[in-house]
């Protein structure tokens, strides 16, 4: 656990009735947020959807797609007022364990090149640069590329 984090985080599967809170956080954090439908469909599709809690409060959430021996992290978010306190690192470590329990050989994700906090965190957790996906994200002016990062689960057993 991060030295910053003084409270043991708890994680539980996301439920339909969490979506109101999740979508409110999503709109605060991202200029181009996921829609309610994106979260609803993720739950309906059986994706591995999680919330990170502090006491009774949801401080973050994540959506992980587990298929064909791979884990693909589609969304990981810590609420704005909770960021920078160690929750994101703890949540990522938990999600890596979820992927490991699924026996995923790799875990990959996309991140904006401009998102230096997230990129550094992923790098510290063992994710490596794989490639750039051109014009992947909507941006204020045109589109922004995505950096694809991959964690080789065998290397980080
Ligand atoms: C990226 C995100 C998940 C990280 O979670 P977090 O709780 O803020 O991060 P943590 O407090 O666990 O810190 C992780 C590392 O980043 C560093 N960090 C966190 N915020 C930082 C900041 N504003 N500036 C510089 N470094 C920062 C921490 O020092 C820590 O490094 P360490 O592990 O060496 O101590 C979270 O900030 C977030 O949800 N951001 C907005 C949404 C987003 O970008 N999601 C990822 C999309 S790919």
UniProtKB/TrEMBL annotation:
GO molecular function: protein-N-terminal-alanine acetyltransferase activity
Family the UniProt entry places it in: Belongs to the acetyltransferase family. RimI subfamily.
Subcellular location: Cytoplasm
Residues the record marks as active site: 110 (proton acceptor), 122 (proton donor)
Keywords assigned by UniProt, alphabetized: Acyltransferase, Cytoplasm, Transferase
Enzyme class, broadest EC rank: transferase
Catalytic reaction(s) noted: N-terminal L-alanyl-[ribosomal protein bS18] + acetyl-CoA = N-terminal N(alpha)-acetyl-L-alanyl-[ribosomal protein bS18] + CoA + H(+)
Name by which UniProt lists this protein: [Ribosomal protein bS18]-alanine N-acetyltransferase
Keyword Zinc among UniProt keywords: no
First-listed, main subcellular location of the protein, grouped into a coarse class: cytoplasm
Originating organism: Sulfuriferula multivorans
EC number of the protein: 2.3.1.266
Free-text function comment from the UniProt entry: Acetylates the N-terminal alanine of ribosomal protein bS18.
Chain sites annotated for binding acetyl-CoA: 115
Top-rank taxon: Bacteria
Gene that this sequence comes from: rimI
Keyword Transferase: yes
GO CC terms of this entry: cytoplasm
HAMAP family assigned to the protein according to its UniProt record, in alphabetical order: RimI
Residue ranges annotated for the N-acetyltransferase domain, each copy included: 9-154
């Amino acid at each position: 656990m991060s030295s910053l984090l003084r409270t043991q985080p708890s994680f539980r599967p996301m439920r339909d009735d969490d979506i109101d809170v999740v979508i409110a956080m999503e709109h605060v954090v991202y200029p181009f947020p996921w829609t309610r439908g994106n979260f609803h469909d993720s739950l309906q599709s059986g994706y591995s959807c999680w919330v990170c809690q502090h006491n009774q409060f949801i401080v973050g959430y994540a959506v992980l797609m587990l298929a064909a021996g791979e884990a693909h992290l589609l969304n990981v978010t810590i609420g704005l007022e909770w960021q920078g306190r160690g929750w994101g690192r703890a949540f990522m470590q938990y999600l890596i364990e979820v992927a490991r329990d699924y026996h995923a050989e790799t875990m990959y994700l996309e991140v904006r090149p401009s998102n230096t906090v997230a990129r550094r965190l992923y790098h510290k957790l063992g994710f490596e640069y794989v490639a750039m996906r051109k014009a992947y994200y909507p941006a204020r002016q045109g589109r922004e590329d995505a950096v694809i990062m991959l964690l080789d689960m065998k290397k980080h057993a």
